[in-house]
Amino acid sequence: MSAIDLVGVRKQFGETQVVRGVDLAVPSGAFLSLLGPSGCGKTTLLRMLAGLETPSEGEIRIDGAVVNAVPPGARDIAMVFQSYALYPQMTVAQNIAYPLRKRGVPKGERAGRVAAVAEMLQLGPLLERKPRQLSGGQQQRVALGRALVREPRIFLLDEPLSNLDATLRSHMRAELIELHRRIGRTMVYVTHDQLEAMTMSTHIAVIDGGVVQQFGTPQQVYRRPVNRMVAGFIGTPAMAFVEGRVGEGGALTLAGTRVATVDAAPGATPVIGIRAEDVRLAEIGVPARVGLVEPIGHETLVRLHCDAGIVTARLPGDTAVQPGEQVHFTADAGRLHLFDPIGGERLTDPYQGNERDHG
Amino acid sequence: MSAGVRKLGWSLLAWALVLLVATPLLWMLSTSFKPENEVFAVPVTLLPEEWTVEYYVLLLTETSFPRYFANSAIVATLTTLVVIALGTLGAYSLVRFRYRGREAIASAVLLSYLLPSVVLIVPLYLMMVKLGLANSLASLVIAYTSFALPYALWLLRSFMAAVPEDLESAAMIDGATRMGAFLDVTLPQALPGIISTALFTFILAWNEYLLALVLVNADEVRPLTTGVMTMLVSGFNIEWSLLMAASVMMSVPLIVILAFLQSYLVRGFGAGAMKG
Ligand SMILES: Nc1ncnc2c1ncn2[C@@H]1O[C@H](COP(=O)(O)OP(=O)(O)OP(=O)(O)O)[C@@H](O)[C@H]1O
Ligand SMILES: [Mg+2]
């Protein structure tokens, strides 16, 4: 059964359409990441789930029951706000205890639960401080603590780790995964960071322009992005897009070199998407000139300029290429992504002979 | 060195200003303790040569001053309570809820504040007569409320707008009702603004003269401002010491309140609970 169902949900503020028809069924116990560029409506979507905004159209169901008219306090959810929204006049301890106090948890039990959360988030020494006496990262942890102190049906987390340093961030990431595994509650997690989304989630929804572009497991979204927007958004370095050309017999060429066979009419010019890790240097292949070379330790990112555009390659760290050098590169046909040059939708997968690789 | 001189200069200027403002008040205080023959004595005495509380006793026992004082206290307190109650909720609605004509209402409020009070006196008086409220403390409370409320709304609106909406949203998710969120989160944040507004309203009601003159003319319901004037003009000769004693007594409540609330006023906002 799904924990959350969104059916044709729309939201507009005055004339501005912010969410333009979202359908989503989030399985119970899922860790769903909402991923998308700034301003695409992630926070708005979360606020509608929380009951802070009413959808202009459509239906929101939690555990099968329509909650459009249910006030936030009665939805049994917890939320971490992008802005933290800590109560300024309360201490850290009072902030974390507030949801318990409002729900009538006895005082003795409150103290114990606050202490447990403070332990997990390393907030112990800060409990008596006011929010304004905390750094950004500390405030963020308090906000997280206020959400984690209860065990609601659903957690809504709006970029809860954005302001933490790298160490604390990976620590918190691990804590969240562990927490999710332990209590098995549904979590909706908003992030800009696609790496975070890939590593933490069971499901990803890529959002752009107020609609869900793709919903699936991290692997599905990574392996088979449904359009150019998703393909470009997921993965670092970003997928390279170059112009391909279909010749006689479905021969797909890239800068004049045949790279795959496709099921398309001659003369078509699909956009070929290539991920950096799928590119290899080879004796025979697409001729290219080496541009920027970025050694990042165990591997080296190399920009390859070919006639059809620029492709980034992720090569082993010991690769010795110099900028300006002429090389040839190739990629498995099964790893190429083809997109419509106008609409950007994914086209049929290329294949070599009978072999098809969907990853 | 030059910094020290500059600082000294500023201090001197500040003290000169303070003196300028304070002298009449100190003079008033001093005069109120002088016996009658000393008030106009030449050479002028800075402090009373002979201290007397005779006029304070007289004021409190022989005149209607206590009555006026009570009236003023009732009117100013009620006005403040009504204005703060209506102003807080009204300002909250103007800031938080989206409805048709919200901006129009906000502008209308400002506009009505800009209207000179003189033009409203006669209509107000006629209305009070129609309502059967003429010559009552209630008429003063209503009139003062109508004058203070627009300003209060405008002031409180900006204070409420400064309270981030996410705070309330968070409280509602945490299980508070909208009213609970308002009380737990918004009100404490807007408290400095509410206190300033309350102070402004109280002072306005306490010092108001013109409306009181028109709306009430019975001794039982006269506030201090018009009351003391009546005392003054009804005698053959003006008892300056008595008047000064009355003035001192009139100022005391305001001074006490100001001293009490000053720490709130300067404390300002609790900043920095939100990102950015
Ligand atoms: N109350 C509002 N009134 C008008 N427009 C709004 C309102 N709230 C959000 N918007 C607009 O809706 C769009 C989506 O906002 P939202 O906050 O959901 O974006 P987001 O995906 O969370 O972005 P970010 O990643 O930067 O947080 C933005 O263009 C924003 O300007
Ligand atoms: Mg956002």
TrEMBL record, chain A:
InterPro entries registered for this protein in UniProt: AAA+_ATPase, ABC_transporter-like_ATP-bd, ABC_transporter-like_CS, ABC_transpr_MalK-like, ABC_transpr_MalK/UgpC-like, Mo/tungstate-bd_C_term_dom, NA-bd_OB-fold, P-loop_NTPase
Keyword Ribosomal protein: no
Keyword annotations: ATP-binding, Cell membrane, Membrane, Nucleotide-binding, Translocase, Transport
GO molecular function terms noted in the UniProt entry: ABC-type transporter activity; ATP binding; ATP hydrolysis activity
Gene Ontology CC terms: ATP-binding cassette (ABC) transporter complex, substrate-binding subunit-containing
Keyword NADP applies: no
Domain ABC transporter residue range list: 4-234
Superkingdom of the source species: Bacteria
Classification via Pfam families: ABC_tran (PF00005), TOBE_2 (PF08402)
Gene Ontology biological process terms, A to Z: carbohydrate transport
Database matches in PANTHER family: MALTODEXTRIN IMPORT ATP-BINDING PROTEIN MSMX, TREHALOSE IMPORT ATP-BINDING PROTEIN SUGC
Record family assignment: Belongs to the ABC transporter superfamily.
Protein name per its UniProtKB record: ABC transporter ATP-binding protein
Source organism of the structure: Sphingomonas baiyangensis
UniProtKB/TrEMBL annotation, chain B:
GO biological process: transmembrane transport
Lineage: Bacteria, Pseudomonadati, Pseudomonadota, Alphaproteobacteria, Sphingomonadales
Database matches in Gene3D superfamilies: MetI-like
Family: Belongs to the binding-protein-dependent transport system permease family. MalFG subfamily.
Name listed for the protein in its UniProt record: Maltose/maltodextrin transport system permease protein MalG
Main location: membrane
Domain of life: Bacteria
Membrane spanning stretches: 12-30, 68-92, 104-125, 137-156, 238-261
Keywords per UniProt: Cell membrane, Membrane, Sugar transport, Transmembrane, Transmembrane helix, Transport
Pfam family, one: BPD_transp_1
Physiological role: Part of the ABC transporter complex MalEFGK involved in maltose/maltodextrin import. Probably responsible for the translocation of the substrate across the membrane.
Annotated membrane topology: Multi-pass membrane protein
Residues covered by the ABC transmembrane type-1 domain: 69-261
GO cellular component: plasma membrane
Subcellular localization(s) per the UniProt record: Cell membrane
